[in-house]
């Protein structure tokens, strides 16, 4: 079945995976397979004032909503275009003030419900059916996820009851589960979180830990580009998760969030696992139990750090990173993925604290293993090159800065496209630095 508006890509029943997408013609690395507008989307509260609420364009001098003073737009046209969605929140933000605090998921679901109601009234069924057809996995939710959904439903009623007619409770549970399972995090070129969105066509793609396409964003449009050469009749595979981690970790994340295990070649062979879990060369090798215990500690500290981000000061977070690195470093090599994870977190904290030299020191340790462990055209690697390049330039090391920014550019031209604003802006930045 040909996917509407997409030339060279069709839906099909993928053996053992259910629905999927495959190509009907050849695509080369960097080719755009298709672009998909968001069915519904929401800008992160933290990005207000930096990006337009309607088109997600990043620019200075945005105009704020005259009523709530919290939503910002490029111009009157963008403000009018967003009113159907912004009106769900505008008066509520005024009324609740600092107590207006629905989660991003709740905000997105409110917009999905409003959009579905509008489409029913207009009898526009194609995309409505696409939303209804998205996977929910209600029967597979554990108690924690059920409780989270119930909390979100309560918040939806609390903050949006004056502007929305809600479906029944069972339907709300289904919609929240669909959004959690099929929603996309919209990110910029440095992988900073911009917002959340639903792209039904993009959600049709199945997962592989050796993907042949990548999803990037141009405003509120998702673009799917080839990162491998793809032959006619090949299935289109993207990655649902961060690919840095070893096979067991990746599949645990897939089972927890998407309710399946991956059987791609990477998962069957586990050929990168030894390199990802590299041990330090010691006079006496650690026992298998010592290694297992340290892996267990590493997984726990990663989860502890994730929770601590909302509770501890930057100084405390940095100390947490350094203590964990000291402990893991007694067994793990610096290129071990658990070490890399905590070094990356430490770099982020140092950037926040404006400790540029320390941030650079961590980044320099991370980038070489990243470039080996991630796929050839990785947003994680490109974003790290960008951060390093700008650190070098800020620390008046222009030669090193230009070198790594050009490496970022080479990846970005493939994954974002040569005409993307991120690419053209970086070219201008490099040109200005060379004068």
From TrEMBL:
Gene name per UniProt: LOC115818800
InterPro entries named among the record's database cross-references: H3K4_H4K5_MeTrfase (IPR050869), SET_dom (IPR001214), SET_dom_sf (IPR046341), TPR-like_helical_dom_sf (IPR011990), Znf_MYND (IPR002893)
Enzyme type, top EC level: transferase
Protein name: [histone H3]-lysine(4) N-trimethyltransferase
Naturally occurring in which organism (per UniProt): Chanos chanos
Location(s) in or outside the cell: Cytoplasm, Cytosol; Nucleus
Domain of life: Eukaryota
Record key words, sorted: Chromatin regulator, Cytoplasm, Metal-binding, Methyltransferase, Nucleus, S-adenosyl-L-methionine, Transcription, Transcription regulation, Transferase, Zinc, Zinc-finger
GO CC, alphabetical: cytosol; nucleus
């Amino acid at each position: 079945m040909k996917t509407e508006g997409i030339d060279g890509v069709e839906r099909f029943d993928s053996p053992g995976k259910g629905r999927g997408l495959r190509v009907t013609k050849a695509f080369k690395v960097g080719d755009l397979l298709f672009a998909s507008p968001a069915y519904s989307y929401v800008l992160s509260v933290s990005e207000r004032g930096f990006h337009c609420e309607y088109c997600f364009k990043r620019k200075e001098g945005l105009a704020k909503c005259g009523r709530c003073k919290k939503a910002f737009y490029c111009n009157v046209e963008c403000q009018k275009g967003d009113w159907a969605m912004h009106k769900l929140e505008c008066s509520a933000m005024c009324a609740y003030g600092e107590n207006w605090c629905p989660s991003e998921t709740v905000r997105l679901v409110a917009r999905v419900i409003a959009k579905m109601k509008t489409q029913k009234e207009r009898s526009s069924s194609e995309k409505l059916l696409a939303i209804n057809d998205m996977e929910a996995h209600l029967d597979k939710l554990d108690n924690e996820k059920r409780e989270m959904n119930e909390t979100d439903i309560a918040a939806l009623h609390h903050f949006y009851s004056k502007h929305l007619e809600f479906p029944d409770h069972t339907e709300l549970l289904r919609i929240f589960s669909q959004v959690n399972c099929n929603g996309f995090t919209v990110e910029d070129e440095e992988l900073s979180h911009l917002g959340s969105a639903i792209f039904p066509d993009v959600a049709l793609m199945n997962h592989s830990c050796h993907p042949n396409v990548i999803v990037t964003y141009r405003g509120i449009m998702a673009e799917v580009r080839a990162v491998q050469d793809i032959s006619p009749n090949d299935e289109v595979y993207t990655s649902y998760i961060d690919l840095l981690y070893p096979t067991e970790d990746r599949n645990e994340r897939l089972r927890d969030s998407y309710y399946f295990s991956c059987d791609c070649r990477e998962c069957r062979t586990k050929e990168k696992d030894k390199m990802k879990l590299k041990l330090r060369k010691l006079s006496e090798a650690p026992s298998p139990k010592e290694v297992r215990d340290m892996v267990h500690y590493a997984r726990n500290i990663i989860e502890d750090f994730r929770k601590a981000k909302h509770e501890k000061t930057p100084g405390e977070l940095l100390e947490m990173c350094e203590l964990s690195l000291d402990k893991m470093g007694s067994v793990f090599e610096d290129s071990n993925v658990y070490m890399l994870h905590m070094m990356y977190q430490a770099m982020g904290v140092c950037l926040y604290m404006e400790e540029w030299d320390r941030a650079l020191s961590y980044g320099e340790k991370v980038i070489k293993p990243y470039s080996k462990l991630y796929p050839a055209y990785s947003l994680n690697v490109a974003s790290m090159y960008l951060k390093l390049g700008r650190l070098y330039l800020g620390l008046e090391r222009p030669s090193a800065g230009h070198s790594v920014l050009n490496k970022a550019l080479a990846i970005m031209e493939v994954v974002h496209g040569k005409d993307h604003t991120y690419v053209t802006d970086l070219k201008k930045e490099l040109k200005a630095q060379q004068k």
